[in-house]
Write a structure and sequence with these properties.
By secondary structure, the chain is an alpha+beta fold. The protein has two domains: 1-50, no CATH class; 53-107, no CATH class. 26% of the residues lie in helices and 27% in strands. The chain has three helices and five strands, in the order E-H-E-E-E-E-H-H. The chain has helices at residues 15-26, 74-78, 88-99; strands at 3-8, 32-38, 41-47, 56-60, 63-67. It is flat, with a radius of gyration of 15 Å.
Length: 113
């Protein structure tokens, strides 16, 4: 299990302070801290030491993704966006970038209908 924390301040962006605050929140837990900073906030996660079940952070076109888990159909989804970076968080970011948040999934196939 990991921990996820974030700040979103579109009316009063403070990237340096936001990154420091998210880092402070996550350092309470053991593990490696990953933080993304965007124009209106920061998002990060702490991975439990020795955990290898997936997760991670990624950015694409202003979207920030922090994932605590894994995609069981990542191989199938990667066939839709083969240019996605490594990791499931990058795959989610690439799917949303390509299809939008409401359509970040595979289209229904006859086998699944």
């Amino acid at each position: 299990m990991s921990r996820i924390a974030g700040l979103h301040r579109p009316a009063d962006p403070r990237p340096v302070e936001d990154r420091a605050e998210v880092r402070r929140m996550l350092l309470r837990y053991p593990g490696e801290v990953e933080i993304l900073t965007g124009p209106v906030g920061a998002l990060g996660r702490t991975a439990r030491p020795g955990a290898s079940i997936g997760g991670g952070t990624a950015s694409a076109s202003g979207l920030q993704v922090a994932l605590d888990g894994r995609l069981l159909n990542a191989t199938e989804l990667r066939s839709v966006v083969p240019s996605a970076g490594p990791g499931d968080a990058a795959l989610i970011a690439a799917l949303v970038e390509r299809h939008g948040i409401d359509a970040a999934h595979l289209p229904p196939s006859p086998a699944r209908c």
